[in-house]
Design goal:
The chain is an alpha/beta fold. 46% of the residues lie in helices and 20% in strands.
Length: 163
């Protein structure tokens, strides 16, 4: 069984994330969405809510693709999380050149830690390249419309958070 790991904070999950998840699901038998517990980032949504959003948003996709998609919180090294879930592949989404520079360093470090785990990069769909959770939260916080960037459920959660 080929298992992929797509890590991130998903605070909140966006249509850009869902684009990467749907394409990654075609490459593996099981896709684990690694939900990072990153206390330094001070997430807007608690871990439990981020996991619930991911599970809800991915349930239909999992049924459509036949790929099992599960959320898995983690707080350890990414490579250790890959070992924990049995992943042979780490999936990363790229939006721009700036993403590549950071990801290039991460791949190098992960290869030193365990060269048997491959990293696969998927370019964000052109319509989704500008989307980031950080910008979505900022727009929502300032009363802007984020419905083009997130699902209706996530949009409702953002509205509830920011009033």
């Amino acid at each position: 069984m080929r298992i992929g790991l797509y890590p991130g904070t998903f605070d909140p999950i966006t249509l850009g994330h869902i684009d990467i998840i749907s394409r990654a699901a075609a490459l593996v038998d099981k896709l684990v969405i690694g939900v990072a517990i990153n206390r330094d980032k001070g997430p807007l949504f608690p871990l439990e809510e981020r996991v619930a959003m991911i599970e809800e948003e991915c349930a239909k996709l999992s049924a459509e693709t036949g790929t099992r998609i599960v959320a898995h919180p983690f707080e350890n090294l990414l490579i250790d999380c890959a070992h924990d879930v049995g992943a042979q592949i780490i999936v990363r989404g790229l939006r721009a050149v700036a993403d590549f520079e950071y990801e290039f360093q991460m791949v190098g470090m992960n290869r030193v830690l365990d060269a048997s785990v491959e990293t696969v990069f998927l370019m964000a769909d052109a319509r989704r390249q500008a989307i980031s959770s950080k910008l979505v939260k900022e727009i929502a916080r300032l009363g802007g419309d984020v419905s083009e960037f997130v699902t209706p459920r996530v949009n409702d959660a953002l509205k509830a958070r920011f009033g």
